[in-house]
Write a structure and sequence with these properties.
Blueprint: H1 4-30, H2 33-40, H3 44-50, H4 54-78, H5 84-99, H6 101-115, H7 120-142, H8 149-170, H9 175-198
Helix pairs in contact: 1-2, 1-4, 1-6, 2-3, 4-5, 4-6, 4-7, 5-7, 5-8, 5-9, 6-7, 7-8, 8-9
Keywords: DNA-binding
Pfam families: TetR_N
Protein name: TetR family transcriptional regulator
């Protein structure tokens, strides 16, 4: 028989999955606590117990998944030899992350934060944390420490390129041109970052 902690953890995982699905399918407006509870197959009270309001629900869920993906990316990089191989593995992993539902869900939250004064400060804080985590992934790809100007600049270029292409990806634009654009961007980024890693 499951313990209370196990049941609570299972409810949390169902809630996280349902929130991401609803953000992708219905946008911020459709990801209500009631809709999340229904999709997750749990009571509204169970969702409200962990997430007292909708703003906290969506921000905390996006933050949680982003953190998990960052940890996964870091573990992947740790298992790959340094140099070009690690750089390329990191770029491939970042592209997978930006094409995933979590990025679409995050976009919905970011857009909602633009006009919601109560949500905006949370979104800005979330975005700053995610951006720093992404920069850290790029640093680990090169083996360089925080503050190295060259890697910081290249990290920003890579992250913003991924954002732009992923945004087009989420709008339903034809995939082949986006994949070609990423292939070229990946080649360029791999060259710059490998040079930094081996300098």
């Amino acid at each position: 028989m499951a313990t209370q902690l196990e049941r609570s953890s299972a409810t949390r995982e169902k809630t996280i999955a349902a929130t991401i699905e609803l953000l992708v399918e219905r946008g911020y407006a459709g990801a209500t606590i009631a809709a999340v509870a229904e999709r997750a197959g749990v009571s509204r009270g169970a969702v409200s117990h962990q997430y007292p309001d909708k703003r906290r629900l969506v921000v905390d869920v996006v933050d949680e998944i982003a953190r998990r993906r960052t940890v996964e990316a870091q573990a992947l990089l740790a298992a790959v030899p340094p140099g070009r191989q690690r750089v390329e593995a990191g770029l491939d992993e970042l592209w997978v992350v930006f094409k995933s539902p979590i990025y679409t869900a995050a976009l919905e939250v970011y857009v909602a934060g633009r006009t919601d004064p109560a949500l905006r400060p949370r979104v800005l804080r979330l975005e700053a944390e995610i951006e720093e985590a992404l920069r850290d992934v790029v640093r680990r790809m090169t083996g360089l420490a925080p503050g190295e100007r060259q890697v910081e600049v290249h990290a920003d270029v890579v992250i913003n390129t991924l954002r732009g292409l992923a945004l087009m990806y989420t709008t339903g634009m034809p995939v082949p041109p986006l994949e070609r654009a990423w292939a070229q961007a990946r080649t360029d980024a791999a060259r710059w970052l490998t040079e930094l890693a081996e300098a």
